[in-house]
C-alpha cells in the first residue's frame, strides 16, 4: 500500500471538485451528481483508513454511504422530475418559490 | 414557461409540454402495414394525440375509371384491397350488373360465393399472421401463410393469378371451374378446422396475448356506428350487422351461417370474431361446394356495355367491412363517375378514438386490429 | 511499483474525469465522466484490497444509481439546457469558498503530516467478503437496519414524487 | 499436470492465453448461435431456414460477418459522434470482460476471483450503458425510447435475477464460481434440485436482462423499428449483435454454474466403472454424442446438391469424428486433462441447452407491453424472489439445526414458495388492464 497521504490527497481533490460543482453549476442534476462525487471521495478516505488499520469497519461505513447515496439519488431525482413536470426546467435558480 | 437566461439566441421551446414528444410512425415503419403515416403525440410512452396521414399510395383509381370502359376498369379494383382482390371484383361486377339490369347465372353465383369466401379466409389469415407479428408472436405468421398458400393455389389453378386475380367478369365468369376444383376446396375446408384450432392453441389462451389485446383499443357500439365502422370491427363491438344477411347478394341467401358478434369491442374481441368468421366461411364453402348448379356461367350481355343512364350503389361484405361501389352512367361505354366506399378507409377513422390514452405498443396492436390495407385507403 | 503505477493511473483518471464532469455543458457527457470517475474509484478500492466494495461500487453506483441519473437526464429535455448559461451567478464566491476550504484541508494535512505515514498496514485477511459480511451483520447490525429503514423511506419518497400530480 | 508447468506460466501466461482463445472463439460461437437460432426458428415455423451458404447453411455466419464488415458505416447527421462510436464497443467489451471469471471447466478459467459471481454481475450491469448511450447518441426518437425502456427494464429485472441467484448462493456458501460448482459436487445434486423457484426467477430475469423476447421491448421491431439500434448499420450494428449474443452466453453460463452444476456431468454420484478399467460408464457419453453427429453428417453427404457442399459436409463429419476421438482419448489421459476437456464439453452443452430455452420462448410468446413488464417484475418476481430467499435460508437452518436431509427441507420450503407464487400470480390478475399512472417507469 502506498503512503496513506496519497489516498487522502486524492480524496481531498475529488471532494473539492465536487464542492465546486455543487456551488457553481445551475443544473440541479449536475449538482446532484457532484454530491455523488463528494460521497465517493469520502468513501476513498474510509477504505484507505480501513486498509491502514487492517480492519473492515471503514468498508462497512463505505457501504452505508453507498446506501445513503442511493437513497439520496432516488429522492433527489424524484424531486427533480416532479419539479420538471411543473416548471419545465431543471435550473437551480428557477427554484425560487416555496409552492406552486 | 419560465425564461432561462440564454447566450444570445433565445430558445423557443415549442408548444409541447415538458415531457411530450412527437413520434412519427411511418410511412416507413415495420408495422403500419404499408405506407400509413401516424403522427403520435406522446407523453412518455402514452399517446395523448394521434393523426393519421394518408395518401402515400394514391393512384387515382376512381379517376382512371372515367377513362376506361366498364370491362377495362375491372382489373383495377383488384389493386385496391390487394389481399382480397376477389371480393373487390365481386363488388364491382355485381354493381355493373345492377346498372345493366341483369344478373349472373346461378352457377356463376355459387362459384363466386365459394371463391369470395375462400378470399375472406385468406384475408383473415394474412391479418392474423401480421397482427400476431405486430404483437410480437413470430410463429403464427408462417402457419397462416402455409394455409393461405393453399387458397392461392386454388385461385391460381382457377384463373392463373394468385394475388390480383381478376377472377370474375361483368355478367358472370370468364372461366369454367377446372377439373378437381370441388375436391380441392373440399379438402382445404375439411383440414382447415384443425388448423384454426392450431392457431387458437398458440394465441387464444396465451396470457401474454390476452394481456396485450384485452381492453386495448376499445370501441363502443355507439362510437362504432357513429363513425361508420363496418365489418368485424363493428361486429366485435356487438352490432349484428352483416350485409351477407342483411342484403343478401351472390348466393348467400341459400346457405346457413352465423354472424359472430362480441360485446366489448376490444382487440381481443376482434380477434375472436375474425377467428369465428373463418370457421363460418369454411362452413359456407362446404355447403356451397356440395351442389354447384350446372348451366351457363355468363349472362348474355354483349361485348360492348352501354348501361342506361342512371346511378346505382351496391355494397358487399368484404373481409374488412362494407365495400360499396357508387357508379353513375351517362349512357356511354365509360362510367361517368365511380366512387368506392372502402371499408379500411372508413374504419381507419376510428383509430384516433381507439388510440387515445394507450401506449405506443398498443398503437401497433390497434393498427393491426383495424386490418387496413393502404391500397384501399388511398386508392 | 505496479501498485504505484496503478494508483496514479486511477487517481489521474478519477480527478481528470471529475473536472470534466463539473465543466461539461452537455449533461449526458457529464454523467459519463462521473461514471468514469466512479469506475476509477472502484479501481482504487481494488488496489486497497477491498474487493467486495469494488464490486458493490460498480453494481450499485455505476450499474444502479447512475442508470437512474441517465434515465432522468433523458426524460428531461436536453436541447434546452445546451444553450443556457452553465454556471450560476454565485460562481466566483463559490470558487473562492472552495479555495478557502482547500487551503484549510491542506493546512490540516501539513500539520498532521508526521502522524500519518506508511502506518501499521496489517494485512487484511484474504476473505474480504466474509469479513465485511461478519462486521455488517454482527457488529454493525443496528446501523444496517437503520440504513435499510432509510432506504425504505427513500423508496416511499421516490414513489410519492414519481406520481403524476402531487 | 499442475506441477509440470512453472508457476510463473500458470499465473500469467495461461490466463492471457485463455483470454485470447475466448476473445477469438466467442464471435464465431455467437455467429453459430445465430445460425442455431435461425434453424430452430425455421423448424418451429415449418420451414427450412438458411440452406444456401454451405450445406444446411453451415457457413452462413461467416458470410453474414463478411457482409456486415464491408457494409457502409453510416453516422446520422446530428448524432453525438463519440458516444455513437463508443456505445457498441462498450456493449461488446463488457460482455467479453465478464468471461474472465466464468469457469468453462475445472481448468479452463481465466481468473478464479473470490467475488467471481459479483464481478460478472457488475461487469454485465455496465453493458447497459452501451444500450442507453447508443440510443441517446443516435438522436432519434425511436432510439431514445428504446434506450429508456432498456434502462428501466434492466434496473427492474436485475434485482429479481440477483435475488434468484442468492437462493443458490445460500446453499453454495461462496461467491467464487469454482467453489460454487465444487459445492454442488460435494452435495451430489445440482442446485436446481434445491431451488427450482430460484432457477425460474433467474430464467425470467435473465431473458429480460438480455432483451430477448418476450421481453425484447427495447428493440421491439414492430413498435420501435429496432429500438436503440435503429440508426446503426454495418459493423457497429454487428458489434451490438455480438454483444447481445455474448451476453446471452454470459447469463447462460451463470445459470449453468449456479443451478445446473457447471462442468459436472449429469449423475455426478454414479461412479460405476467399465470392468477392469478406471473409465466410468457415463464418461463415454460425450464421445458417443459426437459419434452420432458424425454418422448423421456422413449420411447427409451424398444428398448435398453441389460438390463443394458435399466436401464441406464431409469435413464437418470429419470434425465430429475428431472431436469424438478427442473425447475418447481424454478418458485415457491423466485425470486433469480428462476433467478439463469433459468439463468444457458438459459446460458448453448446458449453456446451449439454456440458450435453446431462450429461443423456444422467443418463438412461442408474444411480446409484453411495457406496463405489463414492469408489473410482472415488481409485483410478481421481486416479491417471489424475496420469499424464495427467506424460504431457502430457513431450509438451510432447518437442515443444519435439526438434521433434516438438506434436499428434503429445501423441497418443503420450495413447495411453500410455490404456494406464494400462485397467490401472487392470482393477485396479479386483479388490476384493471390499464391504470392511468403506470408505465412511466419513473
Defining key terms:
heterotetramer; B: 379 residues; alpha+beta; Cytochrome-c3 Hydrogenase, chain B; 2 domains; three-stranded antiparallel sheet; globular; disordered N terminus; D: 442 residues; mainly alpha; 15 helices; disordered C terminus
Fold topology:
The complex is a heterotetramer of chains A (100), B (379), C (166) and D (442).
Chain A: H1 4-24, H2 28-53, H3 57-87
Helix pairs in contact in A: 1-2, 2-3
Chain C: H1 2-23, H2 27-47, H3 51-75, H4 78-83, H5 91-111, H6 128-139, H7 141-162
Helix pairs in contact in C: 1-2, 2-3
Chain D: H1 7-44, H2 60-69, H3 81-98, H4 116-137, H5 141-172, H6 177-187, H7 191-194, H8 196-209, H9 221-224, H10 234-258, H11 285-300, H12 307-332, H13 335-364, H14 370-401, H15 406-429
Helix pairs in contact in D: 1-2, 1-10, 1-13, 2-10, 3-4, 3-10, 4-5, 4-10, 5-8, 5-14, 8-10, 8-14, 10-13, 11-12, 12-13, 14-15
Care to describe what's here?
The complex is a heterotetramer of chains A (100), B (379), C (166) and D (442). Chain A is an all-alpha fold and 100 residues long. Chain A has 3 helices and no strands. In chain A, helix 1 packs antiparallel against helix 2 and helix 2 (28-53) packs antiparallel against helix 3 (57-87). Chain B has 379 residues and is α+β, with helices and mostly antiparallel strands. Chain B folds into 2 domains: 2-53, no CATH class; 61-378, Cytochrome-c3 Hydrogenase, chain B, CATH 1.10.645. Chain B has 15 helices and 8 strands. In chain B, the strands form 3 sheets. Chain B has a 3-stranded antiparallel β-sheet with strand order 1-2-3. A 3-stranded antiparallel β-sheet of chain B has the order 6-7-8. In chain B, a hairpin with a 2-residue loop joins strand 2 (37-43) and strand 3. Mean pLDDT of chain B is 84; it is low at 1-16. Chain D has 442 residues and is an all-alpha fold.
Outline:
The complex is a heterotetramer of chains A (100), B (379), C (166) and D (442). With 100 residues, chain A is mostly helical.
CATH superfamily of the largest domain in chain B: Cytochrome-c3 Hydrogenase, chain B
What is the total domain count of chain B? 2
Classify the beta-strand content of chain A into a percent band.
Answer: under 5%
How much helix is in the residues of chain B?
A: 40-55%
Rg of chain A is 17 Å
Task: Please outline the major beta sheet of chain A.
Answer: none
